[in-house]
C-alpha cells in the first residue's frame, strides 16, 4: 500500500512516499530530491502531445517523471520548486479536480491529467495560462506558494486569481474585474496586476494559497541587475 508523509509544512513542505513493490508514481519533472536505489525512473510527456505543445508554449516543462519500485518497496522524497505547502487529494472517480499547472506535484498512474487552456486569465493577469484537469481514481498531491487553506464553498465566493491553487469541478467560475468593469479598472488590471478575480459558484472545495508569487516577482523586479550602456 502506498503511504505518504508531508514534512516541514507549511513553509517548506517535502513529500515522503513509500512505493509498494513494482508500483509506479507520476511526479513533476525535476522534483525528486532523493530515493532508494531500487527505484527506477523514466520520463514521459504530460497530457499527451497536444498538452506537451501547450506547456512548451507557456514556458513550462511538458515532461513528467515516472518512478517505479523494484522487487521491494522503495522510499522517495519530492520537493516542489516553490517554497510552500503540499496538499493530498483522494480521487474517487466521482468528480474532477482543477489544479494550477505549476501546482502539480505527483499522482497515481490511474489519475488522468488533461491540460486545459485558459487564455482569458493569462492575457489580463500574466499568470499561468494552463489548468490541469485531474480525473479518475487514486492519489494526487499539489503544492502552493506559502500555506494552503481549504475553503468549503456553498454559493458564491470570490478569490484573487493569483491565490487560486485548486478547486473541484462541481464549482463553476467566471473571471471578472473587482468592483465592476470600467476603463480605470481595466487599466489597473492590465498594468497594475490588481483587480482581477475569480467568482466561484456552487458547492465544492476550493484551495487558496497565503502568498501570491506574482506579487513577489513584481516586488523584486526593480532590484534586478540591469546592463548599462
Structural summary, described in words:
- By secondary structure, the protein is of the alpha+beta class.
- It has a single domain (3-222), classed as Double-stranded beta-helix, CATH 3.60.160.
- 16% of the residues lie in helices and 49% in strands.
- A hairpin with a 6-residue loop joins strand 1 (3-7) and strand 2 (14-19).
- The relative contact order is 0.16.
Question: How is this fold's topology laid out?
Answer:
Elements: E1 3-7, E2 14-19, E3 24-28, E4 32-35, E5 40-45, H1 48-58, E6 63-68, E7 74-78, E8 86-92, E9 97-100, E10 104-107, E11 111-117, H2 119-125, E12 130-143, E13 148-160, E14 164-168, E15 171-177, H3 183-192, E16 196-209, H4 213-220
Antiparallel strand pairs: 1-2, 2-7, 3-6, 3-10, 4-7, 5-6, 8-12, 9-12, 9-14, 10-12, 11-12, 13-16, 14-16, 15-16
